[in-house]
Predict the structure.
Amino acid sequence: MPIDILMPALSPTMTEGKLVRWLKSEGDAVKSGEALFEIETDKATMEVEASDEGRLGAIFVAAGTERVAVNARVAVLLGEGESAVAGSATQGAPVGIPVAVAAAPTPPAKAPPVTVAPRVDDEAKFFAKASRRTVRDALRDAMAEEMRRDPGVFVMGEEVAEYQGAYKVTQGLLQEFGASRVIDTPITEHGFAGLAVGAAFGGLKPIVEFMTFNFSMQAIDHIINSAAKTLYMSGGQMGCPIVFRGPNGAAARVGAQHSQCYASWYAHCPGLKVVAPWSAADAKGLLKAAIRDPNPVIFLENEIMYGQSFDVPDDPEFVLPIGKARIERAGRDVTITAFSRMVGHALTAAETLAAMGIEAEVINLRSLRPLDTETILASLKKTNRLVTVEEGWGYAGIGAEIAALVMERAFDDLDAPVVRVCGADVPLPYAANLEQLALPQPEAIVDAAKSVCYRS
Amino acid sequence: MATTKKLAASHAEAAAAGDVSSAELLCYYRDMLLIRRFEEKSGQMYGMGLIGGFCHLYIGQEAVVVGIQSVLIPGDSVITSYRDHGHMIACGMDSKGVMAELTGRRGGYSKGKGGSMHMFSREKAFYGGHGIVGAQVPIGTGLAFSHKYKNDGHISATYFGDGAVNQGQVYESFNMAALWKLPCLYVLENNKYAMGTAQARAAAGELYQRGMAYGIPGVQVNGMDVLAVRAAAQEWGDYVRSGKGPAILEMQTYRYRGHSMSDPAKYRSKEEVAKVRSEADPIDNFRRMLLEKGHTTEDALKEIDREIKVIVTEAAEFAQQSPEPEISELWTDVLVGA
Ligand SMILES: Cc1ncc(C[n+]2csc(CCOP(=O)(O)OP(=O)(O)O)c2C)c(N)n1
Ligand SMILES: [Mg+2]
């Protein structure tokens, strides 16, 4: 059968082009891959190659013709023994292969609601038997328990094994699990993050410790492009069960490069889950959930919290659902959302506010993606006033997201504009006084709460 | 000290003379030809507007993947860049599913959500399909890590280009692979160009020696000769599988087409391309050898040609008939279990 030679599209945007000249004449033998003619596109001049073997039959579009539409028939290629009569073989036959431009689909207006595990209202029950633990120990216990439970779980990172962790979070793990499961890496974040993603594709469950999340910038390509997107790009085949964990945000006096909060960076990206524990119980219950989760989870810790102690349930099945916030303090006058270390500041502020007669409800967000929108909206319905707190920069931050959420979903519940308390919009300064000024303090939260309550 | 050597010249003869049966040789011919015809068809379909976005063809490089895959065993992991159609076919993935992914249809390997650069098959242990130049190298190293961790006897074949080899993450991977003796066979497909940049303008030194500082052996292989590739893959695949650590095979090869479809290829002369095509074409030369050495007949080869034409035509038809993904697919596969 004679094969129509069509004007090709050589870029996603090309709709027409100029046929500059023919490199073969009617009757010439043509091999697959040989250049047939030259065209000028919107971008460049290119040669068009034959995709089949045969003999060039009739040429329909002469050299020099401008504005030849993509898919127009420019010539015909004849097979063995086929007639060279100009165009006869295909005349009358529909020319031009249908282009697959389907009617633009109208996507559903919104993503279906993110399903989260049912609310554990029985969380309190677990505290019947609890022990005082530091956040550091709670994190270590979570890893150790999950490593005992699942031989595919392993930890890797800089100084996690022999040194026992840069912040001693992995203390004792090497001794219990050995060097094949507690792995000291070279200082090579991009490399080991990618390697761990490969190990997760290969069926293992890596826990990757970043000495701090500041250094995850070296690795962010693998976190987003490899870990977060591959499930979708593979049509659901390539799950990536991995935890990236480490301290996030400001510590104390370590300067701008070691003090950034990456919450909004990671929470921005579909395909990731992002959690930020505050207490030791949060740390343990959420880290166990993160390790068991079949998805990539960003686990944002805080160095200043490592040494603080809280009650932690003894039951190894204390696993908190990712996607659920916790009301740390009930109140009717104003809702304060916070995560990580800022939950402590919010609770301190709530005490001060209580002395002034303002009862604040403090929500420990725990999970930033998915965000527990129901808990936030239910609280706002009661208080009609909202203050968001985060240590990171406000611009395009978590507070901005929550403000947008309540504006879209609960506009009528607001009696005052939302106020965001966040880090100053500068690289974090080193000087003690300036650092103090740049980070949210409980007083700022008090002031914000008073302002949304129209109190002075 | 790392062994690094230039051009494993005697491989081709050794292999041709000895251990490979005629039937096996015909399989290599068939696989290479299938890749070529598939890619020609892809180019044609792109020209018709049926394939969108980027489309990177593998034409000219077929001997590399066919030679390497010939020594892998089921369960060995394979990973590569966006120039991945040939690798998928060589891994035994179905041409229809690959072509339907190129057209963005629901019958594609990623249900139409990945496209030319992002296809995967758990069943065939093909791990993509990666659009970030060099990113597949640590991931492939991690697959090797998982094989070692599970002690399952498998290796990871990690393919990357002469452009990718300049990424820092490649050396981060080499270091860890050597340090931990990971079963990773690094296949560096040196097709001489990274988009419009010739190797000499981007890379200092010899590429097969890039692992030397880590003690990783490297050899340069004629990647236009499927038997030379096979022999090197056999030798170094065995080395890697035996637990000695990674190895680097620099495949000297050439891409005939532009980097992607909209590349006018002004950075090289037509004569250069024509010369490789006429003198070093991996399929033409292999075909000639098969006939000369009496491994097959013209008729048998014609029959293979016909069979492949049918496969490719059917793939193209399937890729056009398979419907676009359901609208609801927009929201699926973001998270497992969501
Ligand atoms: C990180 C990154 N930088 C740049 C690009 C754009 N890009 C795509 S392919 C390519 C050239 C890569 O060449 P090579 O590694 O030799 O592979 P080949 O295309 O020859 O197979 C470039 C620069 C990219 N996709 N990713
Ligand atoms: Mg290249």
